[in-house]
C-alpha cells in the first residue's frame, strides 16, 4: 500500500513539493516509487538551472524504463540531493524523506494549481 | 486485441504486471526484474514463452527447403541437433532469427519470434515453389516453458520427471506422455535410457519436445507441449518452490547481458547478420540460401554500420533509440538496447554505429535526455555465458 503524506502539494504526474518559506523540496510520491519499482538511477539538474512548472527537469530510471520528472513549480535549483547519485534506491526506501531538488520559487501562486493530499489520494485511485 | 497464452490466468493470479509484447499480453514481472534476473543467474527461473511461434516442415524436400530459407547449414545433421540462424531477404536484411530443430530425416521444427509469426509464415509459404514439402503452422497448438538457471537440470528432472541430464547443449529429445505411466522417452536416438524417475505428470499420449536451449546465457531447457501439459507443468514447477516465475522484463536483461540479439532491436529488415556480428551463423559455403549473395558482397566490401557494445562511465541508462555521438558531438549511431547491467553494475548498451567507430576502445558518447554521457566501445558481451556443453 502506498503511503501518503499530509502537508505536501502533489502534481498529477506524481511529484510532491514541500514548501518552506521561499523554497520548495521536490520529490516523487510513495505511490510513484511503488509504480516504478527498483530505482537504479536519478537524473538530476545542476544547481542554478531554471525549472519551469509542467516541464521536465530530470528523470527517474527503473531497470526497464525512464520516467521523466516534471517540475510542479517554476524557479531556480539551489540544491540537488547528492545522496541519490550513489544510492538511488533511497527513493524506494523513503520517497518523502528523500527529496530530489530544492528550488527557490519564482511564482508561489503556482502552488494553488497543485493537489492537497486528499485530492491526490483520489487521483491515485483513478 | 492481444492474444493470451494458455497460462494467462495463472500470471494474473500471481499478480504479474501484464503488458503487450509481440501480439500477446505477457507477464513483464511478478515481483521485480532484479530479483527474477538474479534467480536465473543463481538458481532457477521459469518463463512462459508460449507466445513463440512453431512451424513444422516435412516432406521429401524438407531439408533442401530449410537450406534454402535458413542461413545456417543443417545438411547431414544428426537427428536431435538444433541450429540457430536467420531467414533473410535477398537484400541481406533479416526476416527473423530462429531455431531449427532436426526432428528426423526431412523433418524440421522451426521456432520463430512471436512478433514475426504472421510475417514469417507468409514468407515461408511464399518460397515453397519447387519444393515437395508440407508446412504445418503449429503456433496455436504448442505452449512453451523455458526453465533456466544453474539448477534447471535438477528441477526439470526431479519436478517434471523429464530425463534431461544427458541432453547436450543445442540438442533435443522427444518424449511421449503415456497415460498413468508418466513420461516415456520415444523416437529420439539422443534419449537417455534411464527409467528411474517417478514422473508426476500424467499424459494423454502427446509428444513433448525438450531441448537444452534458452535465451538467458545460463544452462536451461525449453519444453514444448500442448496447452494442457504446459499448464500442468507450470503448476508443478511453481508449487515445487524451486523455480521462480520470471517475466519478459528479466528475459530481456538476461539475454542483453550475454550479447544475444533481439529481433526488432539488434536485427531487422535493415540490419543484416553481418552488421550484427552474427556471421558465424551464416554459412556462406552453402551452395545457396536466400540473401547469400548480399552477405557475400557485405563480407567482401564491408558494411556501413556495425553493432557494438558501449560502456558508459556514469550510471545513466542508454535506452533504445538514443543517439550515439562521436568525440566531435556528431551523431554516428543509435542505441539498440541498453540497461544498467544487473550482473556487473555498469551502464552499457548495444548500438548500431558507423563502421569507422566500431573499433574497441573508440570513445563514443550517448545523448541521454539533455546530457551527453561519455563512454567507449567494448565487446558486446557484458557478462559471460554459463552454458553446460
- Which radius of gyration of chain A do the C-alpha atoms yield? 13 Å
* Radius of gyration of chain B over all CA atoms, rounded: 21 Å
- Give the helix/strand class of chain A: alpha+beta
Whole-number tally of structural domains of chain A: 1
CATH class of chain A reads: Mainly Beta
Separation of termini of chain B?
Answer: 41 Å
Assess the beta-strand content of chain B as a share of residues.
Answer: 25-35%
What is the number of strand segments of chain A?
9
CATH topology of the largest domain in chain B: Gyrase A, domain 2
Structural class of chain B: alpha+beta
Look at the structure and give the mean pLDDT of chain B.
93
The CATH architecture name of the largest domain in chain B reads 2-Layer Sandwich
Number of strands of chain B: 20
Report the total helices of chain B: 8
Total number of helices of chain A: 4
Secondary-structure element sequence of chain A? EEEHEEEEEHHEH
What does this structure look like?
The complex is a heterodimer of chains A (126) and B (389). By secondary structure, chain A is of the alpha+beta class. Chain A has a single domain (9-112), classed as RNA polymerase II/Efflux pump adaptor protein, barrel-sandwich hybrid domain (OB fold (Dihydrolipoamide Acetyltransferase, E2P)). In chain A, 19% of the residues lie in helices and 35% in strands. Chain A is built from four helices and nine strands; from the N terminus they run βββαβββββααβα. In chain A, a hairpin with a 4-residue loop joins strand 1 and strand 2. The longest helix of chain A is centred in the C-terminal third of the chain and has 9 residues, at 117-125. Chain A is globular, with a radius of gyration of 13 Å. The relative contact order of chain A is 0.26. The mean pLDDT of chain A is 95. The longest helix of chain B has 14 residues, at 227-240. The model of chain B is unreliable at 185-200 (pLDDT under 50). Chain B is α+β, with helices and mostly antiparallel strands. The relative contact order of chain B is 0.15. The two termini of chain B are 41 Å apart. In chain B, strand 5 (82-88) and strand 6 (94-104) form a beta hairpin. Chain B has three domains: 3-52 and 141-256, Gyrase A, domain 2, CATH 3.30.1360; 53-137, Aminomethyltransferase beta-barrel domains (Alpha-Beta Plaits); 305-379, Elongation Factor Tu (Ef-tu), domain 3 (Beta Barrel), CATH 2.40.30. In chain B, helix 2 crosses helix 7 (248-257) and helix 5 packs across helix 6. Chain A binds chain B through residues 37-38, 40-41, 43, 56, 58-59, 61-66, 88, and chain B through 28-29, 32-34, 249, 253, 315-317, 319, 339-340, 342, 347, 368-369, 371.
Amino acid at each position: 500500500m502506498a503511503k501518503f503524506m499530509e502537508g505536501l502539494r502533489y502534481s498529477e504526474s506524481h511529484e510532491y513539493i514541500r514548501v518552506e518559506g521561499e523554497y520548495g523540496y521536490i520529490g516523487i510520491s510513495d505511490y510513484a516509487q511503488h509504480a516504478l519499482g527498483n530505482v537504479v538511477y536519478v537524473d538530476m539538474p545542476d544547481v542554478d538551472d531554471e525549472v519551469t512548472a509542467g516541464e521536465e527537469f530530470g528523470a527517474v530510471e527503473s531497470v526497464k524504463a525512464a520516467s521523466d520528472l516534471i517540475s510542479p513549480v517554476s524557479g531556480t535549483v539551489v540544491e540537488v540531493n547528492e545522496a541519490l547519485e550513489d544510492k538511488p534506491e533511497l527513493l524506494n526506501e523513503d520517497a518523502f524523506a528523500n527529496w530530489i531538488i530544492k528550488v527557490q520559487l519564482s511564482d508561489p501562486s503556482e502552488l494553488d494549481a497543485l493537489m492537497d493530499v486528499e485530492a491526490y489520494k483520489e487521483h491515485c485511485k483513478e | 486485441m492481444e492474444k493470451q497464452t494458455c497460462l494467462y490466468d495463472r500470471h494474473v493470479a500471481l499478480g504479474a504486471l501484464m503488458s503487450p509484447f509481440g501480439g500477446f499480453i505477457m507477464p513483464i514481472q511478478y515481483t521485480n526484474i532484479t530479483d527474477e534476473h538474479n534467480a536465473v543467474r543463481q538458481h532457477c527461473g521459469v518463463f512462459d514463452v508460449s507466445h513463440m511461434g512453431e512451424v513444422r516442415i516435412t516432406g521429401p524436400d524438407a531439408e533442401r527447403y530449410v537450406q534454402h530459407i535458413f542461413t545456417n547449414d543443417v545438411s547431414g545433421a544428426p537427428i536431435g541437433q538444433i541450429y540457430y540462424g536467420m531467414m533473410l531477404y535477398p537484400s541481406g536484411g533479416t526476416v527473423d532469427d530462429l531455431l531449427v530443430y532436426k526432428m528426423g530425416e526431412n523433418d524440421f521444427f522451426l521456432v520463430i519470434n512471436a512478433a514475426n509469426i504472421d510475417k514469417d509464415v507468409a514468407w515461408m509459404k511464399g518460397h515453397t515453389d519447387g519444393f515437395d514439402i508440407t508446412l504445418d503452422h503449429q503456433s496455436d497448438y504448442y505452449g512453451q516453458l523455458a526453465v533456466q538457471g544453474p539448477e534447471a537440470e535438477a528441477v526439470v528432472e526431479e519436478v517434471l520427471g523429464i530425463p534431461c541430464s544427458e541432453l547436450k547443449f543445442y540438442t533435443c529429445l522427444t518424449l511421449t506422455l503415456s497415460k498413468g505411466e508418466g513420461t516415456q522417452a520415444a523416437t529420439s536416438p539422443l534419449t537417455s535410457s534411464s527409467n528411474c524417475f517417478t514422473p508426476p505428470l500424467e499424459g494423454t499420449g502427446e509428444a513433448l519436445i525438450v531441448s537444452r536451449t534458452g535465451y538467458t546465457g545460463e544452462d536451461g531447457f525449453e519444453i514444448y507441449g500442448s496447452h494442457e501439459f504446459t499448464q500442468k507443468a507450470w503448476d508443478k514447477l511453481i508449487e515445487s518452490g524451486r523455480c521462480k516465475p520470471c517475466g519478459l522484463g528479466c528475459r530481456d536483461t538476461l539475454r542483453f547481458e550475454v550479447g544475444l540479439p533481439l529481433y526488432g532491436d539488434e536485427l531487422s529488415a535493415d540490419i543484416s547478420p553481418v552488421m550484427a556480428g552474427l556471421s558465424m551463423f551464416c554459412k556462406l559455403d552453402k551452395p545457396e540460401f536466400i540473401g547469400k549473395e548480399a552477405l557475400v558482397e557485405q563480407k567482401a566490401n564491408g558494411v556501413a554500420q556495425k553493432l557494438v557494445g558501449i560502456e558508459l562511465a556514469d550510471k545513466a541508462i542508454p535506452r533504445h533509440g538514443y543517439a550515439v555521438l562521436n568525440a566531435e558531438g556528431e551523431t554516428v549511431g543509435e542505441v539498440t538496447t541498453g540497461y544498467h547491467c544487473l550482473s556487473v553494475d555498469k551502464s552499457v548498451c548495444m548500438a548500431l554505429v558507423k563502421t569507422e567507430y566500431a573499433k574497441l576502445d573508440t570513445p563514443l558518447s550517448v545523448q541521454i535526455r539533455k546530457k551527453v554521457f561519455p563512454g567507449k566501445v567494448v565487446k558486446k558481451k557484458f557478462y559471460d555465458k554459463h552454458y553446460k556443453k
